[in-house]
Design goal:
Immunoglobulin-like; 2 domains
Length: about 200
């Protein structure tokens, strides 16, 4: 085997390894972004610490940004709604910000419902089927961030394993996969450089 053939083999190996590492990194990054986009509020059976006694919006207190969609996913086995509280419908509830969107999202058993918020504010909501005392939650909406992520972020209080972590960056698995992909790319470059020096 000539020196030229060896060099060509090394180059092909490097290109294949770099391509695989790059593809791995891109897929990991997209996986992380997908985890961010899939977050929302889960409706479950059973009481909550502060959001109701029969059914629960989980997390009970969430945050998001204007222009972002909030998705309620019903895992309770019965129909629900997510509806902005009014003083007449939610006696004893704190008042929502006057800027809150008026929303009434139907969430049938085993399905999901979505609302995209246009205005900032603190919005208290409840289920019209079961009433405020049995089922209510809160979402705090701020202006759209400058980063590409505009997905609602559940607060840390009351979060459950069924409520994935969110934010502007990929989740823990996505971040770890990105780092692993970059490490693989770096290792490939170092190995190539060492092989060149030996030749």
């Amino acid at each position: 085997m000539t020196h030229r053939d060896r060099a060509l083999g090394y180059r092909r190996g490097f290109v294949a390894a770099a391509g695989a590492a790059g593809l791995f990194t891109v897929v990991a990054f997209l996986f992380g972004i997908h985890a961010v986009a899939a977050t929302g509020i889960t409706i479950t059976s059973g009481g909550c610490s502060g959001g109701g006694s029969s059914y629960c919006f989980n997390p009970e207190s969430a945050s998001g940004t204007t222009g972002s969609a909030v998705t309620w996913t019903n895992q309770s086995g019965v129909d629900h709604t997510a509806t902005l509280c009014t003083s007449g419908a939610c006696p004893g509830a704190p008042a929502s910000s006057s800027s809150c969107d008026s929303f009434n999202v139907s969430v049938g058993s085993g399905s999901s419902g979505t609302h995209t918020f246009s205005n900032q504010g603190t919005c208290y909501y409840y289920c019209t089927i079961h009433g405020y005392a049995l089922m209510h939650g809160k979402i705090v909406l701020t202006g759209a961030p400058t980063s590409p992520s505009a997905t609602p972020t559940p607060s840390t209080s009351g979060a459950s394993p069924s409520s994935p972590s969110t934010g502007g960056a990929p989740g823990p698995l996505g971040g770890a996969a990105i780092i692993l992909g970059l490490a693989l790319l770096t290792l490939t470059a170092i190995t190539r450089r060492r092989r060149r020096r030996r030749s």
